[in-house]
């Protein structure tokens, strides 16, 4: 039994370059780890609930473990027993003043949701992270928190390190989320839990709905109205008693994206990715790859923990370029880097629009993807909010890719190297542990050729 979500932060270790080489067909079955969004929320909501929450299938990635350590610092008890995680929560309003800064490592979701979770408490909480997280914009969450009355005691041009002190009397607000962001929506809803009265979030463009669904499951009073134009009005009542739950975390579709694209582009592949979350706010990549001609079969659909899950059967396919509808972006926002890799192996032009949010992820993903494609002989155009990839059915490869502390850039270009004419190298694979620690051995077991290179 391990009693704490330990493991050292990946950014504390030195970079580990890795090379991917052309592989024979990828074959077999693979189970991807638990969904990262749901895993963060399982730790957080368990920490706020009364009683013992038991979580099965939690993603034991660095991002989520950092959230677990933060919940412990706020007073929750977290233990791993066998394969399940047990969280004893403190009740809404019950967090204790942390004795040191909360370190969220590389995780935007962890830090932005936690600022809502404990930023309203009448004590000072300090939030820190790695170099990537410290460069990401936090004004998007500080704005609504300031409106609630939270004092921003310390900030670095609205970036980390940030220290917050909650007001004696926090005010319920009505907040229209200005960008498509589940993290901002969730920050405000979580703050609303400790504010007497009704907090309202207006979401003009729907984003992943895990906070709403899981809060309802933990017993919060949350009402959602959808207007004719798709705008969602989400109202949460303050000071509920949240009750501990049994949570089963489905497989992460954002991690499944890598073996799925690998299966499509590596000739001779025929593989099944098991237990993948099919929530429609997360399946934009599957729709897009199918439109490109990908042979993707969704089989064995079933329900698990209030969500639909399924297995995804993928075969090597001849792909064609498509225009991805702008409104699909929120349902595949983390999947554009690996879609760009699929597009490089397609015939014709793939146009991806509405990508402004990619510039404020773990790296500027729009620029990082464009540079990585160019380094491997792929013709592309990077615009402010668009990426156009001109595929020729094959990729020369041979490039060295800079990953900028970004797990999805590392995994995307390692997938590229499995099918390109010459190997593809990435400068660092350590960040893969933030979201998909089993990526290298898991794809390796299907036949992927990865080799460690010296730093
Ligand atoms: O709420 C979440 O769990 C997430 C929301 C998305 O971020 P944004 O809210 O910044 O779009 C996504 O990119 C991230 O990986 C997880
Ligand atoms: C954007 C991501 O995560 P986060 O914002 O939590 O760092 C991601 O996992 O691709």
Short characterization:
The chain has 455 residues and is of the alpha/beta class.
Bound molecules: shikimate-3-phosphate, phosphoenolpyruvate
Largest sheet: 4 strands, mixed
* Straight-line distance between termini: 35 Å
Structural class: alpha/beta
Strand content: 25-35%
CATH architecture of the largest domain: Alpha-beta prism
**Count of β-strands:** 24
Overall, the morphology is: globular
Helix count, DSSP H or I runs of 4 or more residues: 13
3D structure, described in words:
This protein is an alpha/beta fold and about 450 residues long. It folds into 2 domains: about 10-35 and about 250-450, UDP-n-acetylglucosamine1-carboxyvinyl-transferase, Chain; about 35-250, Enolpyruvate transferase domain (UDP-n-acetylglucosamine1-carboxyvinyl-transferase, Chain, Alpha-beta prism). The protein has 13 helices and 24 strands. It has helices spanning about 35-50, 60-75, 110-120, 130-135, 140-150, 180-190, 210-215, 255-265, 285-290, 335-345, 365-375, 405-415, 440-445, and strands spanning about 20, 25-30, 50-55, 75-80, 85-90, 100-105, 125-130, 150-155, 160-165, 175, 200-205, 220-225, 230-235, 245-250, 270-275, 295-305, 305-315, 325, 345-350, 380, 385-390, 400, 425, 450. A 4-stranded mixed β-sheet has the order 22-23-1-24. The chain has a 4-stranded mixed β-sheet with strand order 2-15-17-16. Strands 4-5-3-14 form a 4-stranded mixed β-sheet. Strand 16 and strand 17 (about 305-315) form a beta hairpin. The radius of gyration is 21 Å and the shape is globular. Bound molecules: shikimate-3-phosphate (S3P) and phosphoenolpyruvate. Phosphoenolpyruvate binds near residues 63, 109, 334 and 408. It is an enzyme of class 2 (transferase). It is found in: Cytoplasm. Belongs to the EPSP synthase family. One of its GO terms (biological process) is amino acid biosynthetic process. Monomer.
